[in-house]
Specification:
10 helices, globular, Fumarylacetoacetate hydrolase, domain 2, twelve-stranded mixed beta sheet, alpha+beta
Length: about 350
């Protein structure tokens, strides 16, 4: 499934699933299978937590299958959603039940981040090429500790932006993008063994860890952080893709071979592959869960892929992002996450 949080024309944010170039309103379609299910709270965090027998990922899959049967297989076969979120659905109108629209063309809704308010955001430092280059710019070697465990910091889960959202320009002269892959926890756990960790993953999405490099340099001098250099914005989306959708790209160790691309104003600036992560998501989950509970809705960022930011590409001198710039991050199977700077 490709799960979304969307805002319908006349409603509040709610959880949905993509069906070709349209979105299935899971709350509206739930009565197809479950009595009184539409009266329950259908948002992405509740869906991941699975607090109800009728509001969970398995129920969402069953609802999506039921709606797919209603519209027919020809619909999804003849109307494929483009990676950039092309919204020419070909739907003559929406399907309804009890007066509530079950299926809406994407051009009639607004997508938010799949998790507009994650339980937490941990951002790791998993790509050796990025670490080595960042250290080289400071005339330093990669510390041996980096190879021992996957280090992370906590970002601001209250400053999350979704696809097509405008990012406010921070008080910085050196704004940068960071091209990352993220996974989302779908279960609660503590002291999770690495060999079991991927069973806790609900899905994957694109992450842009926006960074103010000048502020980051000042924080680094103190020896604490990053903090203000990154807490102003994190972009997530455009949708959360469940692991089964990515099996084609998964190796025997659970690593994903996904091409990662960044464009600024339509010009490609970065290209890498998620398979080059030194520390896997399984290792990240195992490390983070040691002596600490992880919860459904926790987001784990991979850290920047090698060459996946202007800091690396310009040797730390810029030019940096400016107001009016448009940044697109694209990852195989996960779509395109597009934002503009205001």
């Amino acid at each position: 499934m490709r799960l979304v949080t969307f805002v319908p024309p006349d409603g509040l944010p709610r959880a949905g699933a993509l069906l070709g170039p349209a979105v299935v309103d899971l709350a509206a379609a739930a009565p197809l299978l479950f009595e009184e299910a539409s009266e329950q709270r259908w948002d992405m965090l509740n869906l991941l937590c699975g607090d109800s027998d009728n509001v969970n990922l398995d129920a969402a899959a069953k609802i999506l299958a039921a709606v797919t049967n209603m519209v027919g297989s020809d619909f999804t076969a003849n109307h494929t959603l483009q990676g950039n979120g092309s919204r020419d659905s070909g739907l003559a109108g929406s399907l309804s039940i009890g007066g509530a629209a079950m299926v809406l063309p994407l051009d009639q809704v607004r997508l938010l981040a799949p998790l507009p308010r994650p339980s937490s955001i941990r951002d790791f430092y998993a790509f050796e090429q990025h670490v080595a280059m960042a250290r080289r710019l400071r005339n330093q070697e990669v510390p041996p500790e980096w190879y021992r465990f996957p280090a992370f910091y906590f970002s601001n889960h209250g400053a999350v932006y979704g696809p097509d959202a405008t990012i406010p320009m921070p008080h910085s002269e050196a704004l940068d993008y960071e091209l990352e892959l993220a996974c989302v926890m779908g279960r609660t756990g503590v002291d999770i063994p690495a060999e079991e960790a991927l069973n806790y993953v609900a899905g994957y999405m694109i992450m842009n860890d926006w960074s103010a490099r000048d502020i980051q340099a000042e924080e680094r001098a103190i020896g604490l952080g990053p903090a203000k250099a990154k807490d102003f914005a994190t972009s997530l989306g455009p949708w959360l893709v469940t692991p089964d959708e990515l099996e084609l790209y998964t190796d025997d160790d659970g690593r994903l071979s996904l091409t990662m691309i960044a464009r600024v104003n339509g010009v490609e600036r970065s290209r890498g592959n998620a398979a080059l992560m030194h520390h896997s998501f399984a290792d990240m989950i195992a490390h983070a869960s040691r002596d600490a509970y992880l919860y459904a809705g926790d987001v784990f960022g991979s850290g920047t892929v090698g060459g996946g930011c202007l800091l690396e590409l310009t040797s730390g001198y810029g030019p940096w992002l400016e107001r009016g710039d448009v940044v697109e991050l694209e990852i195989t199977g996960l779509g395109i996450l597009k934002n503009s700077i205001m």
